[in-house]
Design brief:
The protein is of the alpha/beta class. The protein has 9 helices and 9 strands. The structure holds adenosine-5'-triphosphate (ATP) and 4-amino-5-hydroxymethyl-2-methylpyrimidine. The site of adenosine-5'-triphosphate has 23 residues, from strand 8, helix 7 and helix 8.
């Protein structure tokens, strides 16, 4: 059985985030990866030097090409840049009836460069979140989507509830941005219960693309037919290994190590 996953996202020339992180993660998890590019970024470990969005038609046509021939067992979205691209993507997801959809609501790169126009946040809420099986906001993204200020674990839970009310079936609020403490805690809400995914916080500056990699791993596992809980557990182990075994490349915030999880399975 060949499992297939499609990522609809931006290109990171530095190879650590975006489409590149997604395809590497799919491959590591033994899932055939396909891509529809939304934008090309000139980017490296020091920051984003340029952003060149594609037209909504170009995005829609790539998805059409994949959907009418290869098909996809699961789909994820990353950087979508504009309200027009979001609408085009939502229409195609509906057309192909893709219900295993992971929405990573990418807004701002780690260095502060905007990857989603401010006015597109409401389009994300209106058109795409209601189609999402899973959404994976980090803390600032969850704040932007809900209007809440998130400080405590209870705040995170409240944000998860609000996003569930907006139509997301499973909400994962990632804890990577919570710098306090020895642990990183990601919270999963399924509409009735909360589940914590906790790991040791690794003290490193090489965390470029952690969010993309994490959501791609969830998507790959969903493509195989795993439950959301199983998929999030594997994704947490995948990103933990990828952060722990850093590659140490580039002069800034380096990429994570996409082959570390596989190595850990064979050691
Ligand atoms: N220092 C760390 N140690 C261990 N796990 C981490 C660390 N930083 C992030 N993570 C984990 O990585 C995953 C992604 O979380 P994070 O909040 O960093 O996403 P993000 O901000 O969307 O990432 P990015 O914008 O770089 O793609 C989560 O599972 C989180 O717990
Ligand atoms: C293309 C792209 N997508 C997502 C992110 C978020 O990490 C990034 N830095 N670049």
């Amino acid at each position: 059985m060949v499992y297939k996953a499609l990522t609809i996202a931006g290109s990171d020339s530095g190879g650590g985030a975006g489409i590149q992180a997604d395809l590497k993660t799919f491959q590591e998890l033994h899932v055939f990866g396909m891509s529809a590019l939304t934008a090309v970024t000139a980017q490296n470990t020091l920051g984003v030097q340029g952003v060149y969005p594609l037209s909504p038609e170009a995005v829609a046509q790539q998805i059409e090409s994949v959907g009418t021939d290869l098909g996809a067992d699961a789909v994820k979205t990353g950087m979508l840049f504009s309200a027009e691209i979001i609408k085009a993507v939502a229409a195609k997801v509906k057309q192909f009836g893709w219900d295993r959809l992971v929405v990573d609501p990418v807004m701002i790169a780690k260095g502060g460069a905007p990857l989603l126009q401010e006015e597109a946040v409401s389009a994300l809420k209106t058109y795409l979140l209601p189609l999402a099986m899973v959404a994976t906001p980090n803390i600032p993204e969850a704040e932007a989507l809900t209007g809440l200020e998130i400080r405590t674990i209870d705040d995170r839970k409240e944000a998860a509830k609000r996003l569930h009310e907006q139509g997301v079936k499973y909400v994962v609020i990632k804890g990577g941005h919570d710098d306090d403490g020895e642990e990183t805690v990601d919270i999963l809400y399924d509409g009735s219960e909360f589940f914590d995914f906790t790991s040791k916080r690794i003290n490193t500056k090489h965390t470029h693309g952690t969010g993309c990699t994490f959501s791609a791993a969830i998507t790959a596992e969903l493509a195989k037919g795993k439950t959301v809980q199983e998929a999030v557990q594997t994704a947490k182990s995948f990103i933990q290994a990828a952060i722990e075994h850093e590659l140490g490349i580039g002069h800034g915030h380096g990429p994570t190590n996409h082959w570390a999880y596989r190595d850990s399975q064979t050691r």
